[in-house]
Design goal:
With 368 residues, the chain is an all-alpha fold. 60% of the residues lie in helices and 0% in strands.
């Protein structure tokens, strides 16, 4: 449909470091493979999405969430004629920089880094693929294509943008990213809104009646397919499935309208337009209600408070410990020139899985 607006090997801005390739993979297929084979990607399996793993084995983690975002974004890109491989690469890498213990861990690490530039997981994801991962002899990072790196960096402060060259320009000049990056951004929202709702129900943090009170669910239940479902878990699964489908459908239809309205002729035109991938105004209201519901009923639920307190305590302890005992930090995270001590400590802690952070904390406490 909009193939002329898709990023491909010919119009990509390429890689930072030149490489010679001897196989038939396209650029974004290669990027996807590099991400999947990275250590940071493997660690996502043991990083919290919402529920720390003592809740059970069937709740989403950062790895399953990234796969779900990838699936949704590929479906949307296929419908719009855009580059599925680029969407997949951005989706699989977008959470590489998340700290252990989900958003609670991120907030705790950001607090520790308050006087040292702060911590933001999108920027950290970019640092991982450009600096921290080291498997190639001629450069640091994974040397991913420009458009993948651009898509990973959804948000960026002016201070950081000034140091990022061309990558930072779009934040300084308020350009839009590629359509593929815009797709992944909203696919992320579709995935976590719906799947956090599903996990919250299965963890008994919310009831079926509370789910049925949501406007988007009331719309879904008007359809005859939802009559005579007596099993609550099956009913919620069907609701989640239909909710995702409706949001994808709405996003595609609204995006088609917006692209036709602004009529970009090339990728440069896309960058100068308002973001063209979007929900309708009514769907935005439904999504906003769902987000508020999740924050009130799940993210701030009393059953999560104790675990969240422990997570904050662990992050703060580890940060302060390595500040006082910097020589014990693995040398891999500090090269003596490009980062401060605190940035190196942040790199190390943010790369930890939940269980590794807990184990290091216990070892240090027991050794005192």
């Amino acid at each position: 449909m909009f193939e002329y607006l898709a990023v491909n090997d010919k119009n990509s801005l390429g890689r930072e470091f030149h490489e010679n390739f001897f196989d038939s993979r396209e650029a974004f297929q290669r990027d996807r493979d590099r991400i999947i084979h990275s250590k940071s990607f493997r660690r996502l399996e043991h990083k919290t999405q919402v529920f720390i793993n003592n809740f059970g084995d069937h709740y989403r983690n950062r790895l399953t969430h990234s796969l779900e975002v990838s699936q949704i974004s590929r479906d949307i890109a296929r419908s719009l004629g855009l580059n599925e491989d680029l969407c997949e690469s951005i989706a699989l890498a977008h959470d590489l920089g998340h700290a252990p213990f989900g958003h609670v861990g991120q907030d705790a690490l950001n607090s520790c880094m308050d006087q040292h530039g702060g911590f933001e997981h999108n920027y950290q994801s970019l640092r991982i693929v450009t600096h921290i991962e080291r498997v190639y002899k001629n450069f640091r990072g994974l040397n991913l294509s420009y458009e993948v790196r651009e898509g990973i960096l959804k948000h960026c402060s002016k201070r950081r943008a000034l140091k990022l060259g061309k990558l930072g320009e779009r934040f300084l000049k308020r350009f839009s990213p590629t359509l593929e990056a815009q797709i992944v951004n909203l696919s992320d929202e579709i995935a976590y809104n719906n799947h956090d709702l599903d996990d919250g129900f299965r963890a008994n943090l919310i009831s079926l009646d509370e789910i049925l009170s949501l406007d988007i669910v009331r719309i879904i239940l008007r359809e005859p397919d939802f009559s005579n479902i007596s099993d609550e878990h099956i009913l919620v699964s069907e609701i989640i499935r239909k909710s995702i489908s409706l949001q994808i459908k709405n996003l595609i239809e609204e995006s088609v309208k917006r692209i036709k309205k602004y009529n970009p002729k090339c990728i440069d035109d896309v960058r100068s337009c308002p973001e063209l991938i979007n929900f309708s105004e009514n769907q935005k209201l439904l999504n906003r209600q769902l987000k508020l519901f999740l924050r009130k009923k799940i993210y701030n639920h009393s059953k999560l408070i104790e675990d969240n307190k422990k997570a904050k305590k662990i992050i703060k302890f580890l940060f302060q410990h390595y500040q006082k005992n910097f020589s014990f930090l693995p040398s891999y995270y500090y090269d003596g020139d490009s980062v401060s001590n605190e940035e190196a400590i942040s790199d190390y802690i943010s790369g930890m899985t939940d269980r590794y952070a807990i184990n290091v904390y216990k070892e240090l406490i027991n050794g005192m």
